[in-house]
Amino acid sequence: MYKNVYLKRGKEDSLKRFHPWVFSGAIHHADDGIEEGEIVRVLTNSDEFIAIGHYQIGSITVRILSFRDINIDDTFWRSRIQSAFAARVAMKIANNPTNNTYRLVHGEGDNLPGLVIDCYGETAVMQAHSVGMHVDREAIARAIIDVMGEQIKNIYYKSETTLPFKADLRQQNEFIHGSSDNDIAIENGLKFHVDWLRGQKTGFFVDQRDNRSLLEYYAQGKSVLNMFCYTGGFSVYAMRGGAKLVHSVDSSAKAIELTNENIALNFPNDNRHEAFCEDAFKYLEEHDNKYDLIVLDPPAFAKHRGALHNALKGYTRLNVKGFQRIKSGGILFTFSCSQVVTKDNFRNAVFTAAAQAGRKVRILHQLHQPADHPINIYHPEGEYLKGLVLYVE
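Predicted structure:
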């Protein structure tokens, strides 16, 4: 029998609107002995059942798994994974002969708060962002194998840096099902080495797939600069799009090595590409009027709300440099992946940068995360990736 958490009077309203979080300030009291990661039932002040989910110490105290009073067992996990997979098949992202790289589970967007699963060929990389998902990792792995069959033969658990620090779980990244040395995955017919062992996130930024395809559309005959290149995703697509020149820049030597490997994997002995291990601002400062397509895809400048002000200043400063350095008639792809930065925040920062640089700018596209990173309509906070494609006179 699950233990109970009781809400303060009136604090059930957001749950009745199916928001998947219960904040600590909404809780009146809880049964004794609840451990972090445990399944709990959430009751109103009048003892009415309203939801069930994972308990955690912190601001978000319960992450909701269901608004029905059910058992969270193997049948539950199998049903949720099946629902997520069916959605990817409907999107024509899974079961696609030209694409075996996609997000299978996107946290709240797939009604599994605190869980991310990315598929790279026959390997699924699972990442827990809550203690509850960590506790249930083996059941989730069984569900993936049951649902995916022969499509997924290996599951790598990569939560060393994403689990709450205070929980002190001391989790190490490891295979929890199978194992594999084959790190090559296919995205839209292009091959990429995926470093799920040491790379950022699950090893690859799956969320930029559609935006990379859009860049490919614009790349023909252009000199392209890919800043913060990481795995070189935008660079590889630019090469296939017929760019005359592609330069990739990152401050990480490991990222430059991975970019060069991915270029060689798809375009061996092609001298159109060159990579530079250098600071982004320094590189932009030293290269003026050289590129007619620039990609600015920095890491998140704001991890929490307290960093928002400085993050917006950072986005403005970076985009000023981009606007100053791009050729007249150039196209700028610019992004923010900071969840606390809203679309309006980001757009205003870019507008300010355009004004400071004194350039005439048109918006060609407003970009966002792809379909396999769905946004739960009851959880607008899940919309984290913002982007603009700009024509710069």
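Summary: DSSP finds ten helices and 20 strands in the chain.
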